[in-house]
Amino acid sequence: MRDGRAVLALAGAAFFWSGNFIAGRALSHEIDAATLNLLRWSLCLALLLPWVGPTLWCSRQAIGRHWRLLLALGATGIAGFHTLVYLALRDSSAIDALLMLSLTPVAILAGAALTGGARPSTAQWAGSAASLLGAAILLTHGEPGRWAELPPTRGTLCMGLAVVLWAAYTLCLRRRPRELAPEVVFAASIVPAVALLLGWVALAPHPAPLVMTLRIAGALAYIVVFASLAGFLLWSYGVAAIGPERAGLFVNLMPLFGAAQAIVLLDETLRPSHLGGALCVLAGIALVGMERQVVVAPAVDVVRQ
Fold first, then answer.
1. Which tens digit of pLDDT belongs to each residue from 65-98?
2. Nearest alpha carbon to residue 41 among 198, 208, 233
3. Angle separating helix axes 231-242 and 2-26, nearest 10 degrees
4. Burial of 23 (0-12, 13-18, 19+ CB in 10 A)
């Protein structure tokens, strides 16, 4: 029974996180990426503080000792990653962005190998190659002859950089000290991220002031309540119940959930190249995850998409 509830919780978290891509795509031309990300995490922190505030206060000395790690987590996984995802969604479909996100296990594997954190096996390198092939199919829409003529779009570049930042975030998060609980790391890493985003928004030129409409407010409410808070709580419960290795596999449901949501809500079209690329990426993920030398899912103590 406990495993069944954990499975539902983890699947629910993946569903809510994939919805973040749908909401981000829907708002991509109505609110700039940095402002959207700033609003998301400022409101999330405001809702989170009544719950985790006392624990944060009790952990203030430990937070001070590990401020560099918390700053790195906030800069990469919250401020940088999500802003780049929202930037990518201005030029890429939600389906394309979600399938590109599937490359994160490969990026994490490569990052762990480069930093000496693991020695990947032959099967894992083969999985990496399969996932890269899937990405190539996605970028060329299944037409290899287009590769030489294919200019990189801003969406592709932003999503590629987002994948790199998420890998860096994951590798940093694996260093979480035991004296800091997952919810403390979650909340404490939001603080420097909000500060960085405030600077970004203040310095960046904005063509027009934000006009808060009912549509923007509704999408923002979904991102804050479901894609951020509810996703975190469901994920934390699932990880505690069945462990991080098994839980990490549920991240791979995001392209499936996201594609279905994009087709229904955004009228996006599922192309044959999407299916071919997704099969290669998922086959690569399966190979990468065959052995436990590297935890290929984002560090699942405190993960949020």
1. 999 999 999 999 899 999 999 999 998 888 778 7
2. 198
3. 150
4. buried
Using alpha carbons, select from 301, 303, 265 the residue that is nearest to residue 19.
Answer: 265
Which structure tokens are listed for 20? 């973040």
Amino acid at 68: R
List, for residues 227-285, the tens digit of each pLDDT value. Answer: 998 888 887 788 777 765 556 567 767 777 877 788 888 887 766 766 776 677 666 66
Angle at alpha carbon of residue 284, lines to 235 and 243, rounded to 5° = 25
CB 219 within 8 A of CB 26: yes
For the residues of 105-154, what is the DSSP string, one character each? HHHHHHHHHHTTS----HHHHHHHHHHHHHHHHHHHTT-GGGGGG-PPPH
Query: What distance lies between CA 292 and its chain's CA centroid?
Result: 22
| Higher-scoring residue by pLDDT: 171, 301 | 171
Which of the 8 DSSP states describes residue 271? -
Alpha-carbon span 11 to 89, nearest angstrom: 23
Where are the strands (E) in the chain, listed by range? none
Which of these, 178, 136, 180, lies nearest to 156 by C-alpha position?
A: 136
Is the pLDDT confidence value at 298 over 50? no
User: What mean pLDDT is reported for the chain?
Assistant: 79
pTM reported for the whole predicted model: 0.80
Say how far residue 107 (Cα) sits from the centre of its chain.
Answer: 13
